[in-house]
Design brief:
It is built from seven helices and no strands. It is mainly α and 181 residues long.
Length: 181
């Protein structure tokens, strides 16, 4: 009995992680087909985190935390009941803690935000008959945070991914967006 060799299907060329970030804006269809084939969310998350830390650095350079804390304490109704020494301790503590807190938010905010959005999306879509994986959800969540905006019903990475995973469905705003059944 002779066996015939079946030619292996040609593997499509994968788009590099950097090209995916650019492709989200200039060729979303091709980019999201590639994301569905091989999801990866580390680079977009790293870029968002780097930008967030840069914003934190900028905030810390421009704000005089001592003056800011002094103004906030004076606005507080508790200020009338505090002695000058207590006010000074509060100002010093706030001025010392605020820059660290700002950097902490800059570092952990995007990471936790993408994790929460990815898990919520994964949970929402895993209840249906969708082909989404946890990795795809994180990748989409990372790319959906364009300029600090949450995923929306407008054409964005989320709606593009849904469109390619659920062909034949209508995703216009008038029909209820991407969640229309």
């Amino acid at each position: 009995m002779a066996t015939t060799a079946v030619p292996a299907p040609e593997a499509q060329a994968s788009i590099s992680p950097f090209a995916r970030v650019i492709g989200v804006f200039f060729s979303p269809g091709k980019t999201f087909e590639d994301i569905v084939r091989k999801p990866s969310w580390v680079l977009p998350l790293a870029l968002i985190t780097i930008l967030s830390i840069a914003v934190s650095f900028s905030i810390n350079q421009r704000i005089n935390w001592r003056e800011f804390m002094s103004q906030q304490i004076e606005k507080s109704p508790r200020a009338a009941q505090m002695s000058a020494e207590q006010k000074q301790q509060q100002i010093e503590g706030g001025a010392k803690f605020s820059p660290v807190f700002t950097y902490g938010i800059g570092l952990l905010g995007p990471i936790l935000g993408v994790l929460v959005v990815g898990l919520v999306m994964w949970g929402a879509y895993s209840r249906g008959q969708h082909k989404f994986t946890h990795r795809i959800q994180h990748h989409v969540a990372c790319l959906s945070y364009r300029a600090g905006k949450q995923p929306t019903f407008y054409p964005n990475p989320l709606s593009e991914t849904v469109r390619y995973c659920r062909p034949g469905k209508s995703y216009s705003r008038e029909s209820g967006g991407i969640f229309a059944r």
